[in-house]
What we know:
Chain A has helices spanning about 5, 70-85, 95-110, 135-165, 170-180, 185-195, 200-205, 225-230, 250, 255-264, and strands at about 10-15, 20-25, 45-50, 90-95, 115-120, 210-215, 235-245. Chain A starts with a helix and ends with a helix. In chain A, strands 1-3-2-4-5-6-7 form a seven-stranded mixed β-sheet, with helices on both faces. Chain A is built from ten helices and seven strands. Chain B is an alpha+beta fold and about 325 residues long. Chain B has helices at about 10-15, 35-40, 45-50, 60-80, 125-165, 175-190, 205-215, 215-230, 255-270, 300-315, and strands spanning about 20-25, 30-35, 80-90, 95-105, 110-120, 195-205, 240-245, 245-250, 275, 280, 285-290, 320-325, 330. Chain B starts with 9 loop residues before the first helix and ends with a strand. In chain B, about 45% of the residues lie in helices and about 25% in strands. Mean pLDDT of chain B is about 90; it is low at about 325-333. Chain B contains ten helices and 13 strands.
Amino acid sequence: MSSIIERLNVTSTGDPTAPTLLFAHGFGCDQSMWRLVAPAFESTHQVVLFDLAGCGRSAPDAYSTSRHDSLAGYADDVLELCRELDLSDVIFVGHSVSAMVGVLASVRDPSRFAKLVLVGPSPRYVDDDEYVGGFSAADIEGLLDALAANWLGWSATMAPVIAANPDRPEVGAELTAAFCRMDPDIARRFAHVTFLSDNREDLARVAVPALVLQCAEDAIAPQPVGEYVHQHLPESRLVLLGATGHCPQLSAPGETIAAIRTFV
Amino acid sequence: VTPVHPVESAEELYEDAPCGYLLTDPAGRILRVNRTFLRWTALERDHLTAGATRVQDLLTAGSRVFYEMQCAPLLRLQGMLREIAVDVVCADGHPIPVLMNATLHMDARGEPAVVRMTLFDATERRSYELALAAARDAEGEARQRAEELSERLGAANAELERLARVDALTEVANRRALQEQLRACVARARRHGTDFGVALLDVDHFKRINDTYGHEAGDQVLCTIAARMRDCVRQEDTVGRWGGEEFLVIAADTSDDGLAVLCERTRRAINGTPIRVGNDTISVTASLGCATWPDESADALIRRADEALYRAKDEGRDRFVLASHVPKVGVRG
């Protein structure tokens, strides 16, 4: 098997002597999610980006149904990446599901990490008694249906559209291709792992300071969830962003950069 | 007089186009909506464009997650979306499947300004896709079922094959299997010059056992004898039921002496321990006639063994007779 650097399409820019910012993207996308944010740190940090196993341009052999049947497998990938690049005092910036991947990785090996930046984290998406995750089990079923409909549609109709789309720059087509490259079976498994995970217990075990970035009107990780994460982490700061939606690194990159900068 | 054709206004084309139009700000807040979309959804224009409703809010929960996690990022990064399948929730709560196309338009500073969306009713297409998905699932299940059945069929065939070669009562080889084995031994002996021998065994006074103890007891006696015979032969030998109370041993790579040892061991195994059937203890003996290759044929070999068996019977039973190759009969026992 090739090294994790190749398997997870790891790219490293910025100042190799400076502290490391390791950016991890969320479900359904790839490292290009950080395109509007990561370059801002290249003058002050070493900036490391990668694609989660099974996503984007990760290698076909990066994904293993046994290893990646829980978020712990993705966390192991992060730790392997840190070992391979010999990283320590890492500032891990995780979006969405990767916020929990970072939590798990830091619990497993706190020595690698200096700080965590959790963008739109949710330790559990499905409501549970008193806990408000924002979704019912039926909602998650609906999501899986939506994913199936789109992969079906995409695989059947989207690829030719992309290939024969003359009025868009190449980068666009490439991007869609990478975004949608996820194998439908892997996507379904990853969706299950993501949306049925429960990492509430792990929050209290985090041994490094964390920054929680909470968007307004976030349908994926609503504000009570961000507050829950903040309350259950031993040492954290909660910042409510003006950005709406679930992806402030795209909808409000300037605000996101500023919030991260005050913390790192 | 030329009739005056009314010219369609751009406004009419927009409002009554065969697709839904939405104009939103970069965050998805609805700025403008056409009549077609309102007709589909029975939603109110004033309510939608009051500034608080985002296009995400019009989607089912599942579609909303998909939109937020994949479509919105894609729209921002590449400036367009093509044929995204999402479900819009109508005023009465029922979802309608649409295909969404969207383009992001930048302002003079290169910042996102507005998003134009066109939505096509995909009810029919979605039904095809669902049927296709169901068909794929069904195909997968059918294939899996076929594999299972094929596996079971293979196992059943193997069992049938085994049963076709086994005597149902005693579970040693049946006559058909014995004849196959004989043919194989003859062929091997002719090709390689290997030795082999056969021993025919007949249970002494079996009719009397049947008459005295009943047929079930007789069956049990046969089973016990078959089992004891199996214990007396080597791995490479074959024990089978030749018919009635007659058994045949095919002994591979054996000489007259070896065959004699095998026959004597078998005879003692049978007469050495009486057979318990229910409350009865039945003393049983057997006579054997044996012969070794070469001979003209398998039939001739069996015939010589059979003649030897009759001699053993004639000479008082509970013994074996080895047929000689020349007309000379050695009697042991």
